[in-house]
Each structure stands twice: as C-alpha cells, then as structure tokens.
Amino acid sequence: MTWARQHGSSTANDEDSRMGVIRAEEAERLAEQNDRALVTVAGHSSDVRDCAELLAMLGLDVGRRQRLA
C-alpha cells in the first residue's frame, strides 16, 4: 500500500506539472492574441478616445501583458 500511495503521489505531481506547463502556454498564447487585437483596434481607430472605447467594448485590456509578466 505504501508503494501505491507514493506512486500515486508521483503521478499526481507529474500531472500537476504538465497542467502547469499547459496553463502557462495558454496564458502566453492568449497574451499574444490580445496584443495582436490591440494593434488591430489601434490601427482602425480614428483617435485615442475611439480606440479606448473600442477596446472597452471588446473587453481588451492594454495593461494585461505587464500584469502577466
């Protein structure tokens, strides 16, 4: 029984580690997608106010990348 618990614990740790990597990769992918969207919106905005309103409507956050880093 002791071996099963230790082995199970190791498997759980491996799974947690893999999930952590997957979460980090997904966070990076989403941050890059957000950055591309910000550039696109900024490029199609008529002025700063228009850009800010569009970003707010789309739920995009200019400061998101800095908080994730």
Textual characterization of the structure:
With 69 residues, the chain is an all-alpha fold. Helix content is 86%, strand content 0%. It contains 3 helices and no strands. The chain has helices at 2-44, 48-58, 64-68. The chain is rod-shaped.
Q: What's the topology here?
A:
Blueprint: H1 2-44, H2 48-58, H3 64-68
What's the short story on this structure?
The chain is mainly alpha-helical and 69 residues long. It has helices at residues 2-44, 48-58, 64-68.
Radius of gyration: 20 Å
Derived from helix and strand composition plus strand pairing, the structural class reads mainly alpha
Mean of the pLDDT scores? 82
Order of helices and strands: HHH
Low-confidence stretches: none
Q: Could you give a short account of the major beta sheet? A: none
Q: Give the N-to-C terminal Cα separation.
A: 43 Å
Query: Roughly how much helix do the residues carry, as a percent range?
Result: over 70%
- Fraction of residues in β-strands: under 5%
Number of beta strands = 0
Please give a handful of descriptors for the protein shown:
69 residues; mainly alpha; 3 helices; rod-shaped
